[in-house]
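Subject: sequence -> structure tokens, single chain

Hey, anyone have a minute? Need the predicted structure for the following. Not urgent.
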Amino acid sequence: MPKNPSFPLIAPHPDAALARAVTTPAPAGPDMTLYEVLDRLGPSIFAGLLDTDGMLRYANQAALQAIGSTADQVLGRRFDTTPWWQACSLSQQRLQQALASALRGEASRFDARIATTSGATLSMDFSLLPLYGADGRVLWLIPSARDVSEREQAQHQLQLTRHAVEQASDALLQVGPDGALRDANRAACCLLGLDREQLLRLRVSDIDTQVDATQWPHRWRELCEQGSLRFETNVRHQEGHEIPADVSVSLVTSENETFAHVCLDDLRERRAAERRIRQLLQFDELTGLANRQLLYERLGATLQTSTETVVLLLEIDRFKRINDGLGPQIGDAVLREAAQRITATVRSIDLVARRGGDEFVVVMPTPSAPTLHTAQALLDAMARPMWIEGHEIYITCSIGIATAPGDGDLPDTLVRRANAALHQAKLQGRNQAAVYAGVPHDDDPERLALETALRHALHDEQFDLHYQPQVDLVHGRIVGVEALLRWQHPTLGRIAPDRFIPIAEETGLIFAIGDWVLCRAIEQAAAWQRAGLPSLRMSVNLSARQLLQPELGRRIEGLLAAADLNPKLFGVEVTESMLIANFDQAVQHLQALRALGVEVSLDDFGTGYSSLSYLRRLPVDVVKIDRSLVPDVTALAEDVSITRAIITMAHQLQMKVLAEGVESEGQAVLLAANQCDQMQGYWFSAAQPAAAVETMLREGRQIDPALFDRRSRQRTLLLVDDEENIVSALRRLLRNEGWLVLSATSAEQALQLLARHEVDVILSDQRMPGMTGVELLRRARRLYPDTLRLVLSGYTELQSITDAINEGAIYKFLAKPWDDEQLRAHLREAFALKEIADQNGRLNQELKVANRDLAALNGQLQTRLEAALRC
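Reply:
Had a minute. Here:
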């Protein structure tokens, strides 16, 4: 039989007087008055009569109705076998024990489960009483039971409620009208760090930081008037710290008792989440600096309160090369380090923010030092090397400066004008600061306005091409030109390419503009060829997006054919970064161009981050050394070594070398001395319109070949001594040797002569003001390694001279006073060695040229073979 759930019990006491009411039973059974009493006990009280053998002799109507039986069906059966006891075996066992006790005169009472007609069970408070005769013996047994199901259910529900309160995650308290804590669940004990006994000895004023004993009556009256309260407060933990809590209080009234039910919600996690949300909304997650939103909020407030406010906008120069070359993880670390350096450089009251990407903003209210001093300190701080995950990284930054109220009194205006100044700093070469100075008519043109103007530039014929000559460093003749795009806007004036080319790239206008440049440059080259001018190669810069056009090769081939221009008189220039981004596709397109006979140049070499393994795989004919690596005669020897290494590397890979940005004769001579093939720069000519270039070609303008002639010349000796009488004596001694003798009285003068003349042998004094002879010859070795270098000195500084000889800076050391014949013999020996070295160098160069020509011929044959096979 199924069991009902447990319910709370309400234990009634059966009428004990019933046992005493019957003193003498009738011979045939109990007196009828007893039956009437049992039947009238009520519908929820079961009662009956058992003999001493436990047989049921009578059952009242309430008991019979519960099991749906008649008296005839159950009377005469042992009471423990009747249907009432089939629902619970435990109750049946306890009845059997009670029957045995009753025969000994002992009354029994216990909770039992009684079956009903519906199959359910009732919870009953059961009693079994012995009924005695006049002789004191037990004559009858009277069973009775009262239905206590509702009471048991109520008790069970109360127990469940108690468990729910105890296991609730919220802290729950009961508080009396006097403020004393009457009850608390486990969560409340954990929240306050107390056990239940300790907590129940406290009052509200002991745990609530905002309520004391005098304020509690007011709080209680407010609760009684409103019925509930909701507020936030801080509660005291047993260890002394305070915990923010959301408090909900409800007034509870039960019969004559009233108390407050209090729920405490711990707000620490919520407050932490709110702080995190505010952090995300107002601060940059990567660097922890103020973000763009907070920047404008605080800048606006500063402008309202400060008499002068300076905004510095910093941008890391060429940051993309770090992200692309070393990965975004290193890039993020660089940004974090940059943020720390900026913060450490400025004052604590200054706001440092990250506007986005690699841009940072410093807001300085009422600056205490000249702004440019602060800007220089920031430049110096950023230029220090960074060590990140084993990488030594060098970065620089450009800074734009705007000041309120002179440059504007609104946050957006001030930042925009600092951005215009930043643009000027980048145009001036980067790694410097520029102060906003305004532009004619308005601020720096807005990007959107510039984009709109750019869309009309082609249609309105605002573009033009200028051409910068490229000069051969052996014969001094113009061998090519680089086509450079110029934009002359009718109102904005001349707009620099680095200002509008990125916009053209982003908007896709570069395709139309690039195609226009190709058409115009090829047409101009063909026109010069038809005019009978000296042959020269026309070079055009390709943009990154142009290079990836699938039909680029076919388009150029079609333009060359339409203009009837020999492909060998046309070239394209690309940069390292363009190739690395999509290496395989770029190589494929360049190979197609080279197959046509078009020359491919690698522009800005030395400023990117491609490796030698990449360079070996590139289909490149010419390596263009960036202007930042073009040395002068006064440059550090290390810089010249870098340039020489690039030239040597390119020649080993069968590539020609062209140096950009040559601005002095010294640079040109030094490049020629280091076997650089070609040059271009302001020293020879800036970019010129087509008519000016045509005039140069007709006039045969070139560099004086004598400046670079290395084949037939008089052997040259350079004498260096700060004593003019020594120089004069040496010149008299050597005047019949047939050498060209140059002389200098200082190391600086000697370097100037070395730049202008090809010197074979140097004979230098040791002790000279400014620079010793050993130092001069060390530098000469790096700049002009083919020279033979000798020291003639009356001082024997053995250590420095020995070191110089060991490292190869000095060929020989000669002592003063000298022996004339021995000195002439040593110099003749030096010239003889120089002659042998020159002959070997010429042979080596001729071999390189022959190998290069052979490789080119093999390439042409391979191309023709592949074309024949395709046919």
